[in-house]
Amino acid sequence: MIVSPDGATAGSERWPACRKKWRAGAADRATASRRPAIAPSTSIATEAQEFQDYLARLRAARDKQEFDQYMAERQSRNASPANRPDEGPSPQPPHAG
After folding, report:
1. Global confidence as pTM
2. Type and span of the H or E element at 79
């Protein structure tokens, strides 16, 4: 006598239904392995190129942001005369006399 994992015997009502489901699943798995592949190399190559382009744009944006920040800091340093060592109060010439 054949007994299923849930305790049903081969003659019970549930056993044939389980067997049909299992066979249908096996048929689906067999046909899936026979389906032609959809050119994954072209889609992967396209995805890889798009990702590389994205990374290049991201790096350029980050570099521009860092450069703009540097230029803003440099301009703010140059704007205040106290921070310029060569343009402090001009020394008074000695009095002759």
Report:
1. 0.38
2. helix 40-79
The answer to whether 14 and 4 are in contact (CB under 8 A) is yes
Contact 28, 20 (CB under 8 A): no
User: Which token pair is 2?
Assistant: 């054949």
Token pair of 20 as six digits: 């049909």
* Cα-trace Rg, the chain: 39
Mark whether 12 and 26 lie in a shared domain.
Answer: yes
* Full domain range(s) for residue 43: 39-75
What is the identity of the amino acid at 12? S
Residue 44, pLDDT score: 87
Phi and psi of 67, rounded to 5°? -65, -45
